[in-house]
Amino acid sequence: MDREGKGLRVVTSRPFACGEVICDFHGRLISRDEGLEIQQNNQTQAGHLFFFTSKNGQDMCLEAHEERCECHPNKTTFGRQMKHSARRANLSPRLHFVDDEPLIVFMATRDIQTGEELRYDYGDNRRSCAGDGLDLTPS
């Protein structure tokens, strides 16, 4: 949904239970350094980066600038549109692996009602994100 003056936001079309997987964050897997370069040089792509540490301790980034990913060319991936909220977050990102490829999934941290906006804590200092990423425990 479009929120006047704040751009697109993601709201639920049905209720979700605490612990339920809501969606994932699809994107092109790149290095932390590539992500930082995008962040510094391309403002349109900078808002769709997810920095994290892989299971072998490597600093990585998922870049989700494209609305549709290669693995789901006929679907819009909405995980990339979710907004930040440290106080009103209702989702928590979790790192999973499918065939050794990293996958970020968002799980409900509480029961979520129909029509609620989905938010998560980006885990960075919003004034100067340096691509530190979230310390996600692999599931």
TrEMBL record:
GO molecular function: histone H4K20 methyltransferase activity
PANTHER family in UniProt: N-LYSINE METHYLTRANSFERASE KMT5A
Ranges for domain SET: 1-123
InterPro entries in UniProt: KMT5A, SET_dom, SET_dom_sf
Record lineage: Eukaryota, Metazoa, Chordata, Craniata, Vertebrata
Protein name according to UniProt: SET domain-containing protein
PROSITE patterns per UniProt: SET (PS50280)
Gene Ontology cellular component list: nucleus; polytene chromosome
GO biological process, one term: regulation of transcription by RNA polymerase II
